[in-house]
Design goal:
Rossmann fold; 7-stranded mixed β-sheet; 9 helices; 7 strands; globular; binds S-adenosylmethionine
Length: about 220
């Protein structure tokens, strides 16, 4: 597995000092986290999206793990970090400098209707709540039925947001585990986007989905 260079570490730290709430960590994710994330996407096909790749350590690990036929779109808000990720020499990789809130449009720009997997390193506890909710709605819209949303996060903020705050969310938590070899330890969550028709039998813990959103989703396909 690729070792994060000192230059990447320094760039990460500098960007953290300049935009602490956006970057939210002084160091990139540990190799242990990279390995665990890579395992969750092993052999993934179709369109794989990474949100908030930072300096690209997780990106490299994911690229090494997904199918050689997969397309890989990385969306990074910070232009300095986006430029670093764009240096990764892999023909499957497209880097877009922009916000995860615009993911559906970013996919359309790339000629894609939806993503089969979305991996997020976004700092949901430090970005403004309204933006965090917009990002989660964008993920919900961009994910193909049956697709997976995988996120790693230090606090429970994201779980609460997805579970109770995103109106009509079609994301169902299927797995979560701790990555202890990380400072701080991270939770790795795996949600699955349930098909719209399955929502009539969604778990009691989830509110029924607003029917006004269903037609917009119907055209989403892998
Ligand atoms: C905690 S760092 C994670 C970096 C990297 N994935 C890692 O694990 O080392 C969060 C990253 O998300 C990016 N970010 C924050 N808000 C974003 C947004 N709305 N859209 C895209 N990227 C965003 C930050 O610039 C930063 O690179």
């Amino acid at each position: 597995m690729h070792r994060t260079s000192w230059s990447d570490r320094l760039a990460f730290l500098v960007q953290f000092l300049r935009r602490p709430r956006q970057v939210a960590s002084i160091v990139p994710s540990s190799r242990s986290v990279e390995r665990q994330l890579a395992a969750t996407v092993a052999g993934a096909t179709g369109v794989v999206v990474e949100l908030g790749p930072g300096t690209g350590g997780v990106t490299r690990a994911l690229l090494a793990s997904v199918s050689p036929e997969a397309r890989f779109i990385a969306v990074e808000l910070n232009p300095v970090l986006a430029a670093r990720v764009a240096r990764i020499p892999d023909p499957r990789l497209v880097v877009r400098c922009g916000s995860a809130e615009d993911l559906p449009q970013i996919l359309r720009d790339q000629g894609c209707s939806s993503a089969s997997v979305i991996v997020s390193g976004l700092p949901f506890s430090t970005i403004p709540r309204t933006r965090a909710l917009r990002v989660l709605e964008a993920i919900d819209r961009a994910l193909a039925p049956g697709g997976e949303f995988i996120a790693y996060h230090a606090r429970g903020t994201l779980e609460r947001l997805v579970g109770t705050q995103v109106e009509g969310s079609r994301l169902e938590l299927v797995h979560q585990r701790m990555a202890w070899l990380s400072i701080p330890p991270l939770r790795i969550y795996r949600w699955r986007r349930v098909p719209s028709h399955a929502l009539q039998t969604s778990p009691a813990t989830r509110q029924p989905v607003a029917s006004s959103r269903a037609p917009r989703r119907a055209q989403v396909s892998t």
